[in-house]
Amino acid sequence: MKKAADHTKPKRYGMVIDLDKCTGCGACMVACFAENNIPFKKDESEKLLSITWMRVYKLSNKKKYPDTDICYLPRPCMHCEGHEGHSPCVSVCPATVTDYSTETGIVSQIYTRCFGCRYCMAACPYHARYFNWWDPVWPKGMEKMLSPDVSVRMRGVVEKCSFCYHRYQRAKDKAYVEGRTDVEEEEYQTACTQACPARAITFGDLNNPKHKVYELKQDPHAFRLLERLGTNPKVYYVSSREWVRKSGDNYLKHEEPGHIATKH
Amino acid sequence: MSALEEKTKAVSDGGGFPTLFFIIGLSLSLIVGWIIFPKLLYSKKQQPFDFNHVLHNEMVEDCQSCHFFREDGSFAGVPKLAQCVDCHMDIQGDTEDEAIFVNEYVIPGREVPWLVYSEQPDCVFFSHAAHVKAGGMDCKTCHGPIGQSTSLKPYEENRITGYSRDIWGYNIAGIKKNTWDRMKMDDCSECHVQMDVNQTSVQTEKGACFVCHK
Averaged over B33-40, what is the pLDDT? Predict the structure, then answer.
């Protein structure tokens, strides 16, 4: 048997979302539901109880016509790196359910370990985590349409976006069979990225200069949500509008966005 | 003998019975726990019909002739009917199992509902490609010398969990002599630690969970 270690360089998978391109259509949310066997309810109007790994928020500059402007902001899990992988949720989990991998930079969630204490939900500043208050109920016959690549969650556990990790596993399998050890950029893309009709979402390895995200994240208009908390998220947003960039964090009146935050 | 002495003797005599009952009780509970309960815990199921690996091995190159990788990297696992019918259009030989196979499955075009001994729980992601192609492992390391078997053993299903007994292992004390005796998470991680595979977890500084879970 060969030693399998060090066959891939450490990656930091992340996203760059262009908010100027996002039309708020919600295709990313739908794609995410279908891809990840996300349970839904008969009445999805109660947004506090619905589970949306990818959620599109509507921002407004709260100004009167003609200055009024809105912006849609898709929010997956930020897969925070924190300080050396100590993201807020990973630090508080008492059951090693959620974990940060230094190989991919993905924050994992193992549903079978979770006992539902919801510390991680309290720790997450992005509301990216959701609790299953009920067992999923699928419309008749739909359980046969579920993806076998993603395990279905039960009542009493927390779930969140995994950057479609199962797609990475599949891409790696294909690479191994073809005698490669590494996956190409186009081989591993999340469902939301591929579903976006406006191509607002770009996904890839933030460490790899050949990947599109590497350059996009260095855009002078790039910012991350609540950056000053030190969560070191791996989802970047880009907007040419200053009020949008400013709404990504809480600033004092005299502060300007991007001046205090340190770019990574 | 004084009255006091008699009393002491009676007490020490009486000590024999509780000890005896204790030993009987202990051995009974040990028998129940180690022999009867494990027997009750697993239901035995027979495969739809018997299969001879040795006989087939003589006709083909290696395991991967029937248990092959697909182009997309996934593993085919137990062969589908389409692979078997090339040779088994008509009854070969005169065994009863062959007659069952051809009459009940080949002619009506029904897939054989094989019971898979190594079927893992739903939360497990196992990559054959990573182990066989990238890791260069033999099938035998996990599956044992199944290629040298002339018949299929009964499939034992855990009545509580619904999983195959091959996952927990046949030794109820959990003693493992061969690498293929068990397929529990600890057995996977034991090898992963030894081989230093994806030991990239920040929490445990061992294997990251998303390597084998989904």
Answer: 91
> What is the tally of structural domains in chain A?
1
Residue A64 lies in a domain: yes
Q: Which domain holds residue A69?
A: 13-246
In whole angstroms, what is the distance from residue A20 CA to residue A198 CA?
Answer: 10
Please report how many Cα atoms fall inside a 13 Å half-sphere around the Cα of residue B195, on the Cβ side: 20
For A109, the 3-state DSSP assignment is strand
The count of other CB atoms within 10 Å of the CB of residue A249 is 18
Q: Give A85's contacts in chain B (Cβ within 8 Å).
A: 202
pTM beyond 0.90: no
B75: left (phi over 0), alpha (psi -120 to 50) or beta: beta
- On whether residue A261 sits in a domain, the answer given is no
Instruction: Judge: B204–A99 Cβ closer than 8 Å, yes or no.
Output: yes
How many residue pairs from chains A and B have C-beta atoms closer than 8 A?
123
pLDDT at A61 over 50: yes
Residue A158 exposure: Cα atoms within 13 Å on the Cβ side: 25
pLDDT for position A2: 41
B positions 105-144 inside 8 Å of A (CB):
121-123, 125, 127-130, 133-137
Q: Is residue A264 part of a domain?
A: no
CA distance A194 to chain B (A): 19
CA gap B70, B65 in Å, rounded? 12
**ipTM of model:** 0.81
Cα separation, B201 vs B214, in Å, equals 15
- pLDDT digits over A18-53, tens only? 999 999 999 999 999 999 999 988 888 887 788 999
- Dihedral sign from CA coordinates of B149, B152, B154, B157: positive
What number of other Cβ atoms are within 10 A of residue B29's Cβ?
10
- For A107-121, what is the mean pLDDT? 94
User: What is the reported pLDDT for A5?
Assistant: 43
Domain at A169, CATH number: 3.30.70.20
pLDDT attached to residue A239: 95
Of A89, A90, A91, A99, which to mutate for an interface test with B (greatest number of B Cβ within 10 Å)?
A: A99
Q: Is residue A254 part of a domain?
A: no
Q: What is the pLDDT of residues B47-74, one digit of tens each?
A: 999 999 999 998 888 898 899 999 999 9
